């Protein structure tokens, strides 16, 4: 039986000689970190004109800047040399209409325990940008900008 994982493993085997990056170092060449939604319709490499090795890409539902993203950004900045942060939300986001309390209740009903994360309400781009700018663990907080990607027409609009 072929499933999505098997198909991806087969594709990786075929692509190995073309996607290997042995000459690239771990620090992003452009000194950029991007926090964006995990929506499968959005390809950050293509949208932002990036190549492998250009930026750290952090993805989660709704592009929320949580403690996990702040930790990742601290590592990115302090150990990998990034100095700029983009936060990208998008239109038609499923996470924007997600009822977090209902999801938590569903998981608790199914498993007998509350999920191991706090309820994370949808955040606006400006709030996400402000959370990054306010994080004292980040040495580079002056070049943090927020955008909305429009899935309808592919436009990236700066909003914060």
Automatic annotation (TrEMBL):
Keywords: Metal-binding, Zinc. It comes from the Bacteria. It is an enzyme of class 4 (lyase). Its EC number is 4.2.1.1. Pfam families: Pro_CA (PF00484). Its cofactor is Zn(2+). The keyword Zinc applies. InterPro entries: Carbonic_anhydrase, Carbonic_anhydrase_sf. The keyword Cell cycle does not apply. PANTHER family: CARBON DISULFIDE HYDROLASE, CARBONIC ANHYDRASE. Catalyzes the reversible hydration of carbon dioxide to form bicarbonate. This is carbonic anhydrase. It comes from Svornostia abyssi.
């Amino acid at each position: 039986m072929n499933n999505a994982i098997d198909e991806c493993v087969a594709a990786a085997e075929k692509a190995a000689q073309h996607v290997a990056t042995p000459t690239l170092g771990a620090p992003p060449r452009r000194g950029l970190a991007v926090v964006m939604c995990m929506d499968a319709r959005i390809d950050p490499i293509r949208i932002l004109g990036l190549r492998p090795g250009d930026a750290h890409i952090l993805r989660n539902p709704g592009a929320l800047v949580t403690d996990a993203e702040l930790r990742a950004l601290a590592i990115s900045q302090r150990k990998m040399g990034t100095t700029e942060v983009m936060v990208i939300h998008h239109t038609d986001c499923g996470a924007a209409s997600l009822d977090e309390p209902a999801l938590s209740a569903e998981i608790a009903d199914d498993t007998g325990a509350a999920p191991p994360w706090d309820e994370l309400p949808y955040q606006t781009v400006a709030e996400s940008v402000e959370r990054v700018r306010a994080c004292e663990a980040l040495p580079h907080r002056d070049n943090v900008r927020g955008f909305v990607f429009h899935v309808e027409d592919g436009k990236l609009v700066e909003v914060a």
